[in-house]
Amino acid sequence: MDLWIPSLFGAMPDLSVFQYSIVDNIFSMTVATMGAAALFLFLSRSSVDEEYRPALLISGIVVSIACYHYFMIRHSWQDSYAFSGGAYKGTGTAFNDFYRYADWILTVPLLMVELIAVLRLQKDRATSLLTRLVIAAALMIALGYPGEVISTPDGWLTRVIWGVLSSIPFFYILYVLWVELTKSLDSQPVAARRLIEIARLVLLVTWAVYPIAYAMGGTPQALTAKAGGLVDGTGMVGLQVGYAIADMTAKAGFGILIYFIARAKSTRTSHSADRLSPVSV
Predict the structure, then answer these.
(1) What's the pTM?
(2) Average pLDDT of 149-163?
């Protein structure tokens, strides 16, 4: 018996060679980026102090999960199109973009965990923070998905409503992370403070791409394209490219930043020891 998996695109608009290729290539690039980041993070765990290794392990798991899902997304993309008459046309096989939401429901909470793990906050504070963030992340994804699956122009308003509802926990997460990262600066070693400040900006900038991509995929033209209408598929292309770029930065890029923060905090003790040790003559 075949398993039914929800698809975000039941009908595929015709795409030019450039439009099809840019999406296919960005998916390929995302798979490679996530895979390379996973190898780096797993192999680099021994270069940081033991208390920061769980943060790198979680980061490696995040990008490994994303690597698998983007491999499946690209495979589904290639199955849903065939080159014909100088353009790419839908084959009738639905593009299963649900893999992306399956990825987010696993990786977004883990992103929260890896960040809290590398900050090394007090146990009670870390537990409270993680509970709030994980619940908010689950709500954000759960509320965004019903709007994402809308594939007809007459569902535009419904998509906007779900998008607004999803934005409430989205902005809550950004607010909490910004505040908590700012509060943690005084308790962090000097070498790590600048990196944590950069982490705040990375979170703000990369996460801002998600609602922009969501909006691009929800324009009346994009929804008409989803429904198989004879319109340009630019909105759908923008949605896929935007999400892929945001995922690469928010997962692989942020994971590498977590490594540098862990490395900076790991060297604090050794640097202090070097400064205090007598110089041998």
Answers:
(1) 0.83
(2) 84
